Amino acid sequence: xxxxxxxxxxxxxxxxxxxxxxxxxxxxxxxxxxxxxxxxxxxxxxxxxxxxxxxxxxxxxxxxxxxxxxxxxxxxxxxxxxxxxxxxxxxxxxxxxxxxxxxxxxxxxxxxxxxxxxxxxxxxxxxxxxxxxxxxxxxxxxxxxxxxxxxxxxxxxxxxxxxxxxxxxxxxxxxxxxxxxxxxxxxxxxxxxxxxxxxxxxxxxxxxxxxxxxxxxxxxxxxxxxxxxxxxxxxxxxxxxxxxxxxxxxxxxxxxxxxxxxxxxxxxxxxxxxxxxxxxxxxxxxxxxxxxxxxxxxxxxxxxxxxxxxxxxxxxxxxxxxxxxxxxxxxxxxxxxxxxxxxxxxxxxxxxxxxxxxxxxxxxxxxxxxxxxxxxxxxxxxxxxxxxxxxxxxxxxxxxxxxxxxxxxxxxxxxxxxxxxxxxxxxx
Length: 428
Hints:
Blueprint: H1 3-10, H2 16-36, H3 42-49, H4 53-69, H5 71-80, H6 83-100, H7 107-121, H8 127-137, H9 142-156, H10 161-169, H11 175-194, H12 225-237, H13 240-270, H14 275-300, H15 305-322, H16 330-343, H17 348-359, H18 364-393, H19 397-413, H20 422-427
Helix pairs in contact: 2-8, 2-9, 2-11, 4-7, 4-18, 5-6, 5-8, 5-12, 5-18, 6-7, 6-11, 8-9, 8-18, 9-14, 9-17, 10-14, 12-18, 13-14, 13-17, 13-18, 13-19, 14-16, 14-17, 15-16, 15-17, 15-19, 17-18, 18-19
């Protein structure tokens, strides 16, 4: 049963845009879940091969960095090669790379598989895909859709960790690669059968549009994807708002994916908590993130995005500063899990909304991807830096305290975004 027939069966009840959003939710939660798997491998790899945490963190840092660096080019491919073909290509490479990672025996194997190949293909899970789908398939509820899809981005990094940690704790950490590779293999035919390119391909206008307005083109945009990607960057760098958005998102990645997503399990283990229990805390964050980021999307449709970002970064910074002083008892860790989970990537919907406001929704997906690149650079810096601090001092205290301080800096930066008259912004 193809998408056109399903759209016909759903007519009058559910717009097919929500089916596409659901498919993209599954794609993003799966892709980013694979990318995050090395966080449960830090200790098993250290014990199996005697590799230092700095070495293992280096591969994870490369993984995170490449995810951001290729994001603009992946988004350009989505716009030129097409959404379905780009997703199928990325999933096929990711499946092969993940299975190959089960055979590593040397550090360069780790860097080649989990670092390079998984990092490159997981660029699909960045903000560009979420922005493209929301702008192409929705006129109403764009903020909500971005919130839902980016909740998948964060939750994919967290909710599968307990299962992977239990596999690793059983001494068969290589099985993680085969389980994840199999899951991606199952997803490929689902996308092949059910994902249309545009609303018009199933005889519809975008959700919330009248039948005669806001129809997406029936074919991918023409042009070289490299030219499209760098064209978006060229437009962005001329704007102060781009640098403010990128700088604040650098700090978002620094404090979330790079620090908490990568090192919280190890930090908890340093304080006498088992790997499975620590992974359960991250999984809990993933569950609360589904609510927090979705709610952030709902709020973004209604309130000033700058004010939302101010509170998100301020509260995140305070929580990171307080955590090392809690003693890591279960009450404080549970409170941190709930609080930080709600805030984990709630920054994305208002950041995307501000990018749409400044640059327009046609150009926004590629520019969002460049801003997301800043996010991943920040995450890569924190993933490597925290590992180095832990190796040098024997503690993660400094890493968490520094991260909290820079989050407070971000809360100040975001209040300056898009403060000039609209005519000045449009002229940039």
